[in-house]
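In this supplementary section we document a worked example of the pipeline. Step one takes a protein sequence of length 423 as its only input; no multiple sequence alignment statistics are reported here. Step two produces a three-dimensional model, which step three serialises into structure tokens for compact storage. The input and output of this example are shown verbatim.
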Amino acid sequence: MTSSPRSPHSPLTLPDQTLPLLAEGYAWLPNRMRETGGDVVRTRLAGRPVLALRGPEAVRFFYDERHVRRHGAVPGPVLSTLFGHGAVHTLDGDAHRARKALFLPLLEQDAVTGSAKEIAAAWDEAAPSWAGREHVVLFDEVSQVITRGVCRWAGVPLDDGEAERTARDLIAMVDGFATLGPRHLRARRARGRQEARLARLVSDVRSGAVEATAGSVLDAVCGHRDASGEPLEPRTAAVELLNVIRPTAAVTWFVAFAAHALHRRPEYREPLRDGDPAFATAFVHEVRRFYPFAPFVGGRAVTELSWKGERVPAGGLVLLDVYGQNHDARWWEEPYAFRPQRFLGRPIERDVLIPQGGGEPRSGHRCPGERVVIGVLEALAVRLARLEHTVPEQDLRISLRRIPARPRSGVVLADVRVPAGDS
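The serialised model returned by step three reads:
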């Protein structure tokens, strides 16, 4: 933590940026950084003082629990849609480490391989049916593919009727977390339905009415004990089950972005088709870097903090500029060009590429499912490149004002043909 003279302006005199954030979306924080000419901004959101940071040093500062905590930092509307009340994202210290232990097996290669294999199999089962239709909306189809695959891998039973409903609910949770109005209301209702359904499932497993596959995510959640030594309440267990399934379903956004990239840059289709694993990984990293997903992540200041001459009081918000850092020319040559080659032969610096936040995944707050996201997206990007299709006229624009952003059309494919041997 650095020390410096107080800024001459009280946080209460700073203009509130809530409306500009809603109007500018992903560009809001990069715009404020550009105005100050640095990597730190002090402002207010919803009347609360905010310190916003950018850069690898800022990532390490932000994820140091002596400086920033997550408890109480996630707004209620986000908990009610994206994460769920009582989720691991809201915990700190021993409570966070004990709950995080539930998710650490997701870091193992077997989990990455297993989830990607099940989701790839679900794609292979679904793709032939696309060939008999006039057109398909890729975003909608992939959401169902991923939902079926991840639930199968996690050991969560899902019949045909539930799959489509569950996919809609998982997508709604992600789509409505950062907005007001109908999308947000749909997200809250979707989370309520899925938490209730999964809480009943947890209770049925514990009572013996339903048998969980040994070693499955469902089995682990039902048997997990928190720092207190007590099993999770059924509703909390449902929240954490969703925090495995829902982020995997969010890969739907990245698959749509991958299709957008391949349409705009068709020269990348051939190396993906060839199955070169190094290129597939590079392509996936570039999709996650280039396209907008998380604008920033936030926490609360543990004590009065100062960063590069700007202060925020204890309890104030601290934001890490994710989108801005992933498009900063100091770390990325031609940051607004889509170039997978930048990741070939280059080690991934943990605190530089932060599309899903930063920090250390085993002991810190970095998403433990990030490797699963990468593995699933690699498998589906290769299949997408091999899928014969045309892209009819449609609105493929991606608005940076909409959080989370997505191609407006959902990426419509026509004349779909599955090559022999790919189904």
